[in-house]
Amino acid sequence: MRRYRRYVLPTSGGQALIILSSFFMSFLGVFRVLPLLPLQILWINLFDGIFFAMPLINEPLDSDMLKKPPRDPKEKIINKIFIKKVVSSQWQWHFQVFRFFTLQVGP
């Protein structure tokens, strides 16, 4: 479950951040064209859903998973360190996409 959380939150949040900011940047006139077309968004979701999830499939199973005690009920599922990691990876992904876009098309 932790591995899945580490995968889903940064990628989904990064996609949402890219889509929202591209809409607002084109609406405000920063870009002459919309940076992401609907078909490109679908391709990003398809690529992300298939190829980024492949490492989760190939990870070794925990043979002693049932022997481990359950996690502490007071332990938070999402803590501050996890949130910082998710937010930093989302922003890194966001800036890389827009840097690539501005190199290809221009501001």
TrEMBL record:
The UniProt record lists the keyword Transmembrane: yes
Query: Which Pfam families would you find in this protein's record?
Result: Cation_ATPase_C (PF00689)
Q: In what residue span(s) does the Cation-transporting P-type ATPase C-terminal domain sit?
A: 34-87
- Regions crossing the membrane: 7-31, 37-57
Mind telling me which InterPro entries this protein's record contains? ATPase_P-typ_cation-transptr_C, ATPase_P-typ_TM_dom_sf
Q: Which UniProt keywords apply?
A: Membrane, Transmembrane, Transmembrane helix
Q: What is this protein called?
A: Cation-transporting P-type ATPase C-terminal domain-containing protein
Species of origin reads Methanothermobacter tenebrarum
